[in-house]
């Protein structure tokens, strides 16, 4: 009898199966249910031979399928006989329905019976359990598709990284959406001793699309069936995980299970390769589907059916490796104490709202990793060599060249900080107009500006790209806020990109660059989150794009900016109303009383009577809000927090010979808010202002190197201002 021992942690009982299949062996955390410890096979429907659904054509297809099944079955009988012989020559690990498991309390030597602790029948001492070598790489495969699943993967990965002591290699079978999101996330996460490979799930659809499936996971819920064909042929072992799993222990403990069965696996793999797993599961699926319309548990139904016919393929593990929390499982029989947990499986559509007397404990454990600061998981595995990462090496070289005694060191260092980034945190769905005039509103924000989102969505019906600077905990608060908003949930053309907090400065220009980079329209409106665009501005800009021929000219269309000091404002519905409010003192030109130079070149006096677009010239400190082509230059990352972040960008556009054109019937209004933390630092900290001045001078020198003689005017203008 395989013993369950209590070492540093207590163990519980659950259902995890070790599948030995050709070219690869996996541990798979099953999402389906089991009856009396046995996998449940597909449940055939009652005969529907006389149903109108079954036409003469479908009857012929069924007869043809039956012939095919009989042909392949004969071959499989022969192969099963070979496996049976092999089975008699080695220890067979089957789960006995009435077996008992005993646990040894640490330091006491007492043994006690664990309820439902049914495990496989081979003898093993916990203390003799082979350990995973210090630097042995653990391979993990996950199927992930879509925006929501990508969020779930992050929580799963956090729980794995938190406990791990070994290098990890993640094999992600993902659609194009999940790959884009997760590739960026791992690239910017920069966790040592972690490798990630992607496999195109869309290319695998044809392998399983013929299987009718009612499970909410859709076609991606069947992808695990083809892992042997998808993953590298030289990969012998992999742990296959669902996305709705939370680890409560080191995944190496699960990986160590493979060591127990080394002799068995080597022998069975040789036989199973001859048997061909692809043929096995396809044959089983075809046979089972003859008596039912579709699967209800996706790949789980097919795995269960294969296991029922070939029980020697399975090694059942104690269920503490898969404590399932759907309402139809008997999870409470799986453990005596919540500290016994190894893996929690949220395999219920209700997720955190499941019925369980310990649900608060489970929820808190899950929320711990959900809101855990992922930056803390960037710890080195000392003594384990990591693969050479060119980006990481370049980053370290750049940082090493900085002078740590420089009073502006922290400012300079921020330019090279890699912020963990989660693209498309919520579902996104948008196709640009075919006339190539579409415009995306681009902005950035932090937690204290969330209240602006609904208002902006009401004013701007076009696509929006937002970069949000949040902590892990704040990201979850934002998620709850968005999911509770009818306005935000009704909009699928808003891309929310989370840039996780790190360092002491607000990386305003990095955020703008992230939002700019992930637009799908040919043009973008570079705005700020505190501004509400006029009603109808989206359509007006699309018409202006055509009128000013932005596709073939280097123009930056200026949207004049105004402001109000009133928190409650009757927003002007026309230019005439806005001019009236200007005259009454309800509105002002933006920052006229504190930073006139920033928008003075817009020439508001001319704008009042203008009916046609008009050109203005660049002046020192000019920082208008503009509409440009998507191939526009990025913002300079050296400017963080408050000061010169937009000014530098407009200066560079002018150096690139952009023509600034003011739109006569467009406007935006800045809404009042409390001063930001960064502007407070600028006003109160002399060293902050000194460093900003130093960065400005260095930027102008860089401009001179890049643009030559034409950039001299910026030095002259700065000296005269």
UniProtKB/TrEMBL annotation:
PANTHER family documented for this protein: GLYCOSYLTRANSFERASE-RELATED (PTHR12270), XYLOSYL- AND GLUCURONYLTRANSFERASE LARGE1 (PTHR12270:SF48)
Top-level division of the source organism's lineage: Eukaryota
Phylogenetic placement of the source organism: Eukaryota, Metazoa, Chordata, Craniata, Vertebrata
Main localization (coarse): Golgi
Protein name listed in UniProt: LARGE xylosyl- and glucuronyltransferase 1 isoform X3
Biased composition (Polar residues): 44-58
Gene3D superfamilies: Spore Coat Polysaccharide Biosynthesis Protein SpsA, Chain A
Residue spans crossing the bilayer: 12-31
């Amino acid at each position: 009898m395989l013993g369950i021992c209590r070492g540093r942690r207590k163990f519980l009982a659950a259902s995890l199966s070790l599948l030995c299949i050709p070219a690869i062996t996996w541990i798979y955390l099953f999402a389906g249910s089991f009856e009396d410890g046995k996998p449940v096979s597909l449940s055939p429907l009652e005969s529907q031979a006389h149903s109108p659904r079954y036409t003469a054509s479908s009857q012929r297809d069924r007869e043809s399928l039956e012939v095919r099944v009989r042909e392949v079955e004969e071959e499989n009988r022969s192969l099963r006989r070979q496996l049976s012989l092999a089975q008699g020559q080695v220890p067979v690990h089957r789960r006995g329905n009435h077996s008992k498991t005993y646990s040894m309390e640490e330091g006491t030597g007492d043994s006690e019976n664990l309820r439902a602790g049914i495990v496989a029948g081979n003898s093993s001492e916990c203390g003799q359990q082979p350990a995973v070598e210090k630097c042995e790489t653990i391979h993990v495969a996950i199927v992930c598709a879509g925006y929501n699943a990508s969020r779930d993967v992050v929580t799963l990965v956090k729980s794995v990284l938190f406990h791990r002591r070994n290098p990890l290699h993640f094999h992600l079978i993902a659609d194009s959406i999940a790959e884009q999101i997760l590739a960026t996330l791992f690239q910017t996460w920069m966790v040592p001793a972690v490798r990630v490979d992607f496999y195109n799930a869309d290319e695998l659809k044809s392998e399983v699309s013929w299987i009718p499936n009612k499970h909410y996971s859709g076609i991606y819920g069947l992808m695990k069936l083809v892992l042997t064909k998808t993953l590298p042929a030289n990969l012998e072992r992999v742990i296959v995980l669902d996305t709705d799993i939370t680890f409560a222990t080191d995944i190496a403990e699960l990986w160590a299970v493979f060591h127990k069965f080394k002799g068995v696996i080597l022998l069975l793999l040789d036989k199973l390769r001859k048997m061909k797993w692809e043929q096995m599961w396809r044959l089983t699926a075809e046979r089972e589907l003859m008596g039912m319309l579709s699967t209800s548990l996706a790949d789980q139904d097919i795995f269960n059916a294969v296991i029922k016919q070939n029980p020697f393929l399975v090694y059942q593990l104690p269920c503490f490796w898969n404590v399932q929390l759907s309402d139809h499982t008997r999870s409470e029989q799986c453990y005596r104490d919540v500290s016994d947990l190894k893996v929690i499986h949220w395999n219920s559509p209700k997720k955190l709202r499941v019925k369980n007397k310990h649900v608060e404990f489970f929820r808190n454990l899950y929320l711990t990793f959900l809101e855990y600061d992922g930056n803390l998981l960037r710890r080195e595995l000392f003594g384990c060599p990591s693969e050479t990462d060119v980006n990481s090496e370049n980053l370290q070289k750049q940082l090493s060249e900085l002078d740590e005694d420089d009073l502006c060191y922290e400012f300079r260092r921020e330019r090279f900080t890699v912020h963990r980034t989660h693209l498309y945190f919520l579902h996104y769905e948008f196709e640009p107009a075919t006339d190539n005039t579409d415009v995306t509103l681009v902005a950035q924000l932090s937690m204290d500006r969330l209240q602006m989102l609904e208002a902006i969505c009401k004013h701007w019906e076009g696509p929006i790209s937002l970069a949000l600077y949040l902590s892990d905990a704040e990201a979850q608060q934002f998620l709850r806020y968005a999911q509770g908003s009818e306005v935000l949930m009704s909009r699928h053309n808003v891309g929310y990109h989370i840039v996780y907090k790190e360092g002491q400065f607000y990386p305003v220009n990095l955020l703008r660059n992230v939002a700019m980079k992930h637009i799908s329209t040919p043009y973008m409106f570079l705005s700020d989150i505190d501004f509400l665009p006029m009603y109808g501005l989206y359509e007006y800009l699309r018409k202006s794009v055509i009128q000013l021929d932005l596709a073939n000219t280097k123009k930056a269309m200026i949207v004049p900016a105004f402001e109000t000091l009133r928190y409650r404002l009757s927003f002007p519905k026309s230019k005439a109303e806005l001019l009236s409010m200007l005259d009454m003192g309800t509105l002002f030109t933006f920052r006229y009383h504190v930073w006139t130079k920033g928008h003075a070149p817009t020439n508001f006096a001319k704008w009042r009577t203008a009916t046609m677009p008009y050109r203005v010239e660049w002046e020192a400190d000019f920082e208008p809000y503009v509409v440009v082509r998507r191939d526009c230059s990025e913002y300079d990352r050296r400017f963080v927090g408050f000061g010169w972040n937009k000014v530098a960008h407009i200066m560079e556009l002018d150096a690139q010979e952009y023509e600034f054109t003011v739109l006569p019937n467009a406007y935006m209004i800045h809404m009042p808010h409390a001063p930001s933390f960064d502007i407070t630092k600028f006003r109160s900290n002399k060293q902050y202002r000194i460093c900003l001045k130093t960065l400005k001078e260095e930027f102008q020198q860089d401009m001179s190197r890049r643009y030559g003689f034409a950039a001299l005017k910026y030095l002259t203008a700065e000296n005269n201002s």
